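2024-03-11 09:14:02 INFO receiving multi-entity request
2024-03-11 09:14:02 INFO entity count = two
2024-03-11 09:14:03 INFO echoing inputs for audit
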Amino acid sequence: MLDRPVEEFAAFAALAPAQVDMLVAAIEATNKRQQEALQRAVEDSLLQIPPLLRAAVKAAVGLR
Amino acid sequence: MTSLEVRAEIIKLARVLDRNPEHLLFLAETPAADIRRLREATHEHLFDGDRARFRRIATATKLLPTRLAASIAEKSFAPVFLARIAGEMPADRAIEIAQRMNTRLLADVTLELDPRSVGPILHGMPVSVVRAVALELLHRAEHIAMGLFVGYLSDRAIREVLVAIADEEDLLRIGLFIEARERIPTLVGMLSKERLRRMVKLSQDEAKDLWAPVVALMAQVDPVAQRTLGDMVAEQGDESLTRLMHRCQAEELWPSILPVIARMSPDKQAALLRLEALAEPDVLTGIFTAVQEHGLQRTMLPLIATMAVDDVVAAAGAVGEEQLVRLFNAAESAQLVPQLLAMADELDDQERSWLAAVAAAMPEALQDRFTTEVDRAQLWLPLFDIAAAIPHDARAGLAGAVRRIAAARPELVEQLAELAESRGLADLAAEARAATG
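2024-03-11 09:21:47 INFO inference complete, emitting structure
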């Protein structure tokens, strides 16, 4: 999940498996929450700008 | 033992994950650097996935005049969206646009920025804008975020922000989370003695729970500032020092505070030695365990010597033999004496003198226990090396102990006498031989 060598997290091997699972779940939940918040923010923001600019920004962020 | 750094890292990670720090206390034994690495990797995971699309928008804004870009940003874009775009812009362009935006929005955006982008933007931002945003963040009690940003500010910006933050309690709460610890001495150097004294006074208010931030600050500054701050705590009176002892014991802060205590002025150390709290077995065990676990033997040696030197004992008045016995018991259970002797090769002459002063000033009963420990750990040679560093007269106490152990253990006599002679300590060799002669 995290794009770093496993050795960087050697210290976490001392944790119980359930604790590691909890950390992983918390990171994933944060990621999901932030992605959703960002998506909402992008969509809300686009509604506020002139149509011409909106089309350009939509294209840039890959929205239809 | 949970160090202050580990606690601060747990709180910072909990903030990123939007969790209660209590739920991450299972990380208490994980090194602070590893928790920090996990936090940084989490940031990468959160921010790196969709950078390309925001980079395209950032590139597109180059086509707009700054004023127009700022106006659209301010009126139409949500902070989290702006933060992602700003993170993909060259810092100077982001700064240009930011200067035309209102402070509240800037604070919102700052909190949403990828931490890797914050540095270049904050570093180049005009001081007046930094100051205004800092005050807005302070108004929102964003101490953790402010602690992260300190490392990116110029000295001039830090100075301005410090002046703008009127309440020392805020400074302490930010200080606990400063990521760039190497800046702390500079930052503390910018504060007047009056402000430092107010910080120390604030720690007295138990309701504010500020001992940990004060101790964290004291632990991070240079030796001169450590003495200043340590003395300021002592100037608050015995009650203050007692509270410090008890909080350090309860919160396991000894590794952070012991180097500060070792640097306090001698009269303040003497005041500390008078404290009843310092004679409590739990406190002494906590201190010596921290010395042993964190390798603070050499840092603490001058203080330990001070504890044993007659004139300080006399000045302290209340530090009698019973207290020294308790002190020795704690040192013994932490195996401090053998450890110090085992380090004898690394000690300089002054440090050897200090150690010898400890040995010479001990009551007879303790000297016998001391030599028993030396014998058990086979550390006679380093002991004699240390004895050779002190004047003949000052060796009288040690001579008595050598004589007594030689009398009790005749099989040691020749070994001790030969070792003593090999170090030019004819007096101690004669004592050993006289015990059985």
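2024-03-11 09:21:48 INFO post-check: Chain A has a mean pLDDT of 83.
2024-03-11 09:21:48 INFO post-check: Residues 51 and 57 of chain A are 10 Å apart (CA to CA).
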